């Protein structure tokens, strides 16, 4: 039996419109990754879009990452952490320059 307060393997599913830049730039296309690598030990990303779940990405929260604080966070705060990790992997592109 795990010790009291031990972490478990959790999951977060993120969904975007198919027209969203993240879907078009990262999740879609023949060269889009099935799994997305990150140096953040808490997370592992699986591109569900490539597996027939349009516009969806699965984030595993690994128990062995020892991120025990997540159990005290709201769902919204956990999603914010996941999105911050994705932004570290895929920084937003700057807007195109305005024509002179």
Residue stretches low in confidence (pLDDT < 50, at least 5 long) are: none
Largest sheet: 4 strands, antiparallel
Strand order of the largest sheet: 1-4-3-2
Residues in helices, as a percent range: 10-25%
Number of strands: 4
Structural class: alpha+beta
Spatial separation of the terminal alpha carbons: 66 Å
In what range is the share of β-strand residues?
15-25%
Oligomer: single chain
Estimated radius of gyration: 16 Å
Average predicted confidence as pLDDT: 87
Please tally the helical runs, counting DSSP H or I stretches of 4 or more residues: 2
Write down the overall geometry: globular
What does this entry look like structurally?
The protein has a 4-stranded antiparallel β-sheet, covered by helices on one side. The chain is 22% helix and 18% strand. The mean pLDDT is 87. With 100 residues, the protein is an alpha+beta fold. The protein is built from 2 helices and 4 strands, in the order βαβββα. The longest helix has 15 residues. It starts with 9 loop residues before the first strand and ends in an 11-residue tail after the last helix.
List the helices and strands and how they pair.
Elements: E1 10-15, H1 21-27, E2 35-36, E3 43-46, E4 56-61, H2 75-89
Antiparallel strand pairs: 1-4, 2-3, 3-4
Offer a concise description of the structure.
The chain is α+β, with helices and mostly antiparallel strands and 100 residues long.
């Amino acid at each position: 039996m795990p010790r009291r307060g031990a972490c478990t393997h959790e999951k977060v599913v993120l969904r975007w419109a198919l027209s969203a830049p993240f879907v078009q730039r990262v999740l879609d296309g023949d060269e889009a990754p099935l799994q997305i690598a990150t140096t953040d030990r808490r997370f592992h990303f699986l591109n569900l879009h490539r597996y027939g779940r349009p516009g969806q990405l699965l984030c595993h929260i690994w128990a062995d990452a020892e991120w025990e604080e997540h159990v005290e966070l709201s769902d919204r705060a956990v999603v914010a952490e996941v999105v911050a990790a994705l932004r570290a992997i895929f920084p937003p592109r700057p807007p195109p320059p305005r024509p002179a």
